[in-house]
């Protein structure tokens, strides 16, 4: 059985105490928390993490809308030098209570609109921890192959060999050498 890890930072919203007009949630991480987050995301550093969300009641659940601003540092995939990335992501997520008695019966049809935005997340109790949402938003915005401007293997003088190295190129060579046979 795996242990549930505590969240890196506090972003808990109580649904039963949420005003009808909603409320604002500001998350600005301190240096030790940013260092732990960078370690979790396997990047060099998180220099800035600033999230501003508006939490409002929505169909028995909540809707969290806002913006996440972050600045991260990670090594370049070409030269391993530090690359800084500015992140500015829109956050918009809906949390709804479980359907409970409205659960579909076995054999019934369920309509799923694949063109729609994300499906709503489900609530498991009177509170929602939005820290996972913010960490997920940051993780999805990170460039998987960072590199400095103008940086490439050719600019470092790395010889990439012949341009045609596909399996079909090797087969073509075999075909040309075997053309003399009847």
Written description of the protein model:
This protein has 182 residues and is α+β, with helices and mostly antiparallel strands. It has one domain (12-152). Helices cover 18% and strands 33% of the residues. It is built from three helices and seven strands; from the N terminus they run E-E-H-E-E-E-E-E-H-H. It has a five-stranded mixed sheet with strand order 2-3-4-5-6, with helices on one face. The longest helix is centred in the N-terminal third of the chain and has 11 residues, at 31-41. The termini are far apart. The model has no long low-confidence stretch (mean pLDDT 83).
Please outline what is shown here.
With about 180 residues, this protein is of the alpha+beta class. The chain has one domain (about 10-150). It contains 3 helices and 7 strands; from the N terminus they run ββαβββββαα.
Largest sheet: 5 strands, mixed
Radius of gyration: 25 Å
Order of helices and strands: EEHEEEEEHH
Number of domains: 1
- Overall geometric form: flat
Distance from first to last alpha carbon: 67 Å
Kindly state the number of beta strands: 7
Low-confidence stretches: none
Helical stretch count?
3
- How much of the sequence lies in strands comes to 25-35%
What is the residue-mean pLDDT, rounded to a whole number?
Answer: 83
Structural class: alpha+beta
Q: What is the helix content? A: 10-25%
How are strands sequenced across the largest beta sheet? 2-3-4-5-6
């Amino acid at each position: 059985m795996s242990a549930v890890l505590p969240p890196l930072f506090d972003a808990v919203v109580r649904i039963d105490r949420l005003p009808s007009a909603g409320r604002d949630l500001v998350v600005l991480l301190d240096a030790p928390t940013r260092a732990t987050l960078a370690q979790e995301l396997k990047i060099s550093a998180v220099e800035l993490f600033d999230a501003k969300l508006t939490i409002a009641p929505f169909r028995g659940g909540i809707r969290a809308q806002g913006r996440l601003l972050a600045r991260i540092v990670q090594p370049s995939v070409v030269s391993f030098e530090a690359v800084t990335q500015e992140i500015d992501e829109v956050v918009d997520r809906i949390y709804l209570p479980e359907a409970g008695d409205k659960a579909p019966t076995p054999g019934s049809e369920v309509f799923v609109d694949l063109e729609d935005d994300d499906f709503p997340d489900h609530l498991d109790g009177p509170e929602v921890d939005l820290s996972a949402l913010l960490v997920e938003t940051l993780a999805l915005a990170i460039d998987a192959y960072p590199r400095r401007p103008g940086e490439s293997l050719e600019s470092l003088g790395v010889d990439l060999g012949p341009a045609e190295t596909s399996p079909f190129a090797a087969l073509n060579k075999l075909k040309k050498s075997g053309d003399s046979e009847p």
